[in-house]
Specification:
The structure holds 2 protein chains of 2 kinds. Chain A has a single domain, classed as P-loop containing nucleotide triphosphate hydrolases (Rossmann fold, 3-Layer(aba) Sandwich), CATH 3.40.50. Helices cover about 40% and strands about 25% of the residues of chain A. Chain A contains 11 helices and 10 strands. Chain A has a 6-stranded mixed β-sheet with strand order 6-7-8-3-9-10, with helices on both faces. In chain A, strands 2-1-4-5 form a 4-stranded antiparallel β-sheet, with helices on one face. In chain A, β4 (about 60-65) and β5 (about 65-70) form a beta hairpin. By secondary structure, chain B is mostly helical. Helices cover about 70% and strands about 0% of the residues of chain B. Chain B has 9 helices and no strands. In chain B, α2 (about 20-35) runs parallel beside α9 (about 230-249), α6 packs antiparallel against α7 and α7 (about 145-175) packs across α8 (about 185-210). The chains are: A alpha/beta, B mainly alpha. Chains A and B meet through α2, β6, α3, α4 and α5 of A and α6, α7 and α8 of B.
Chain lengths: ~250, ~250
């Protein structure tokens, strides 16, 4: 794996009013890496994600591909970083799928023809051909999730950050989404409470608790540290015992 | 959840559906103006107007029942407006002086005919094209961008707010066996507040999602509308028909 860093976060702190959400968080994510951020509810995972795209701005330093996230660099940062929100309804606000997918490329300054090509390519990649003129509120939840991802991929970002990508999905859809994530030619950050799918597809993971990074390692290393996972409410031993009981 | 209430027949394949939305907006709004500009008490001309409307309905392939249902929704308001005059005559005691004659009822009838014709035309407009295409047409006609953008977002999120309403309804009903008694209004009030709070929170996330995809305060246009020969032909025929009825009948 190359040694250049796609994301560098140094001593990042952020508070919602008086409630601290992030406390001196430091992280480094390599280019091309699939990196998971796990932690209990309210740990600050989504808040951290919003800093990568410059939507939130806290104290400390955030660099994307060596470029500091500042007001001046926002257009370039938003070209590089794509955010896939937890609820696809929040991401799909245009009347049709086609226009939603074209929204990002057009904002990048692409012509209608270039944006159209990107729309077709991305919808094909997501197995969504024929959905161009459908309204997003007429789609199933799984289809909406794929369209939401397509809206981001059409911008061809170097880094794709997912917020709770596996929530409300059936097992088949989780498997399909993991395959899509693994096929992406970009650095990927996954923020989730569902530890098993994240462990299945990430090279490294960080555990976030109460706004602080309390551990970084490979899935195998973190899975071996049951005590720490238990402490954060992330112990998967319970699921393993069910699988054993069912002879799975 | 699936919703097809607003644009149920907008995907049909008819002459009217194929027209540029700008043609329909201009023609149908002009027709509304022509119809409502008929003099007080005029009823004969409406026979011809309704014949033209029937021809339009036939061309659009929209079921009559759908149109009637839509008209029914507006009926309480139309009837109230139409009956206002005779009722005011009766309540004002002017009938006693012999003023409540057939002319008052003809006047009410003409209000009814005008109102239903206008509703008919508007239902035809909104049912023969997708709402977003109509908005695009309005935008191309230089209506304020903020107005069309707000309408587009409202159209999109009305379904989400409705979903929130259904969810909170289910939550309420699942914990309230039998009928509501005391505190009923308070429950509805709390529910409404909850829906508003959720909508506000959602609006924030939507805005963040727009920013993350490079939103700079303006919606980029993805497709172009095309004004073709059939649009021109339709506009001329329709406007001539309405103006002829208005002027000569």
């Amino acid at each position: 794996m190359p040694d250049s860093f796609a994301v560098e976060v140094k001593d990042l702190s952020f508070a919602y009013g008086k409630d601290p959400a992030l406390k001196k968080v430091s992280l480094r994510i390599r280019s091309g890496e699939r990196f998971g951020i796990i932690g209990p509810s309210g740990a600050g995972k989504s808040t951290l994600l919003l800093h990568l795209n410059g939507i939130l701005s806290g104290d400390g330093e955030v660099k994307i591909d060596g470029l500091p996230v500042t007001k001046k660099s926002l257009p370039e940062i938003r070209r590089k970083v794509g955010l896939v929100f937890q609820n696809p309804d929040d991401q799909l606000f245009n009347p049709t799928v086609e226009e939603d997918v074209a929204f990002g490329p057009l904002n990048l300054g692409l012509s209608r023809e270039e944006a159209g090509t990107r729309v077709r390519e991305t919808l094909k990649q997501m197995n969504l051909e024929g959905f161009e003129n459908k309204a997003s509120h007429h789609l199933s939840y799984g289809e909406q999730k794929r369209v939401a991802l397509a809206t981001v991929l059409a911008m061809q970002p170097e880094l794709v950050a997912f917020d709770e990508p596996f929530s409300n999905l059936d097992p088949a859809m989780v498997k399909h989404l993991i395959e899509i994530i693994e096929s992406l030619d970009a650095t990927v950050i996954l923020v989730s409470q569902q530890i098993l799918p994240v462990m299945a597809c990430c090279h490294r993971l960080a555990i976030l608790k109460e706004g602080q990074v309390i551990g970084v390692g490979t899935p195998t290393e973190l899975a071996a540290d049951r005590g720490r996972l238990k402490e954060c409410g992330l112990d998967v031993g319970f699921f393993c015992s069910i699988c054993k009981k069912l002879n799975l | 959840m699936k919703h097809d209430y607003l644009d149920k027949y907008s995907s049909l394949d008819s002459v009217l559906h194929k027209l540029d939305p700008r043609t329909k907006i201009v023609c149908l709004f002009s027709a509304v103006i022509v119809v409502i500009s008929e003099p007080r008490g005029e009823t004969t001309a409406f026979l011809f107007y309704y014949l033209i409307l029937a021809a339009l309905l036939l061309a659009s392939r929209i079921p009559v029942s759908f149109l009637l249902k839509r008209c029914l929704i507006a009926s309480p308001f139309i009837l109230m407006a139409a009956l206002m005059l005779p009722v005011s005559f009766l309540l004002g005691g002017e009938s006693a002086s012999g003023n409540l004659n057939i002319g008052v009822f003809v006047f009410s009838l003409s209000i009814l005919l005008k109102a239903y014709a206008a509703i008919f035309l508007l239902v035809l407009l909104t049912s023969t094209d997708k709402f977003h295409r109509l908005l695009k047409g309005m935008r191309r006609m230089h209506l304020p961008n903020i107005l069309t953008m707000m309408s587009a977002l409202m159209y999109r999120y009305i379904f989400i707010i409705n979903d929130e309403r259904l969810k909170t309804n289910r939550a309420r009903d699942s914990r309230s066996p039998g009928r509501f008694r005391s505190g009923c209004i308070k429950v509805y009030g709390n529910q409404t507040a909850k829906i508003f709070l959720r909508s506000w929170k959602r609006a924030q996330t939507v805005y963040q999602s727009m920013l993350s995809r490079g939103f700079k305060g303006d919606f980029p246009e993805f497709f172009r509308l095309q004004f073709k020969l059939p649009d021109m032909v339709f506009a001329v025929i329709m406007l001539v028909c309405f103006v002829v009825v208005r002027v000569f009948i």
